[in-house]
Structures are given as C-alpha cells and as structure tokens.
Amino acid sequence: MLREVWTMWKYTKMVVLVAVSAAFYAALVIPLKIVTIVPGITEFRPGAVVPVVFGLLFGPAGAWGAAFGNIINDFFGTLGIGSVGGFVGNFFYGLVGYKLWASMGLANSREDLAIDSGKKTLNFILIAILSSLVCAEVVAWWLEVVRLLPFAVIGPIIALNNALACLVLGVPLMRLLYRRLNRWDLVWFAIMDERDRPKGPSPKVGAVLIWAGVLGGFVVGISISLGATEAVPFTFGTGATTPSVALGVTPFLVMLIVGCLLA
Question: Which positions, given as ranges, span the membrane (predicted)?
C-alpha cells in the first residue's frame, strides 16, 4: 500500500523533512549543472545519491523531497515538459528503496537500516541499482511520450549517472547518517504512527513485480527504441522516438505501480 505517501503530510516533522530533502538534493545538484550530459535534459549528478539514502531514512518524505528537489533543480535551466517525467521519476527513485528494503531477504525489517554486514551492503547495492533503473525508466518513457528523446539514448545515461553516485557514495553516507538520525528520532518510522505506515498486503509479490516491471520495461524500451522489433531493414539502431516505445513500456510501469502497492 502507499497510504504513508499521503498520511505523512499530517506530521510536521515529515513535512520539514520533505523540505530538507528537496533543498539538500537541489543544493548538491545545481552547482554541477554546468557539467552537461544531454543539454536541457540532464547533467553529471553526484547528488543523485540523495533520493536513495533519504528515501531509506525519511521514507515518503525522502520520495517527495526528491521529486520537489528535481523541480527546483530544473528551474535553473532545464524546466520544461520533460520536468513532469523528472518529478514522477525522482519520486519513485526515492520510493522503491524503503518499499523493498525488507522484502528481499537481506534485512530483517524496514527499521533495520544499519549497514553493518555484507548482506545489508548487498541489499543497499541492489536497491541502488533498482532505484536508478526505476528513475531512468519513468523519465525515458515520458520523454518518448512527448517525443523529446529516444528511450535508448536517455535511459542508460540516467541509469548509469544515478547508479554510479549511489554505489560510490551511498554506503558511507548511510553509515554516517543513520545512527545519528535514529538516535534523534528523525527516521520516518520513529515519526509516523504504525497505523499510518502499514506494510503492504504482499511484500514478496510486490518485490517480484517491481523488479519485473523495472527490468522488463527497461529492456523492452531500449529494444524497441533501437528498432529491434522493426521489420524494415537498417532501422535497428537509428534511435528515433516512436509511439511503440511508450506503448511497449506502459504495461511494465503498471506492473511497477502494482508492485509498490503490494510491497
């Protein structure tokens, strides 16, 4: 279920954490907008570690903070129709981590965030990779819908950009922040009542659907975008936007959303 995404707004601390997450994300990303990867769309982002780490620590506040932080960042040169996909993609970027943390058999509970073993380090690495692919899939799908960029061009760039930041900086940042924030009762599960953050009805099934929706959608999106399904010779690899990409990826996005509701 995603009840906590809405009930969190009645907690003053959670609202403050949305603002803190958004400001911190934007503050780390904006100074590097000059290091452009795709003009008007994306840039080098070591600050991309923030949504994953803050999503785990602050739960839905981290997810909303990632979405609003990305919009703030876009105001400094890249605001446009593509920002809609950026808002949603970054929301899911911060969301899937806390939804899946305890659903893959590598951590005991959503509250078990201390990365003090090889299993939980592996858990974080998997979360980082999956979250990066989620963001890339949603953003690339939207840019296909509005005919701005082909999925095969922007999807891998966003995924790699995000994943590198998370894999290099994520574990040290979690170790630096978690115990302090937990001691100060500033982690999301210490702030919200349990009734306002219920576990999903089927976390394991939800986890499978999220992984299938992300990996399947990413592979299908890239394949169609490259022309792998075209019968016309020499269209493979042309990298043009096409409605078939958006249509092909949509069922996997639905699978992702259902998975989040169940996890």
Answer: 14-36, 48-69, 75-101, 122-143, 149-173, 205-224, 244-262
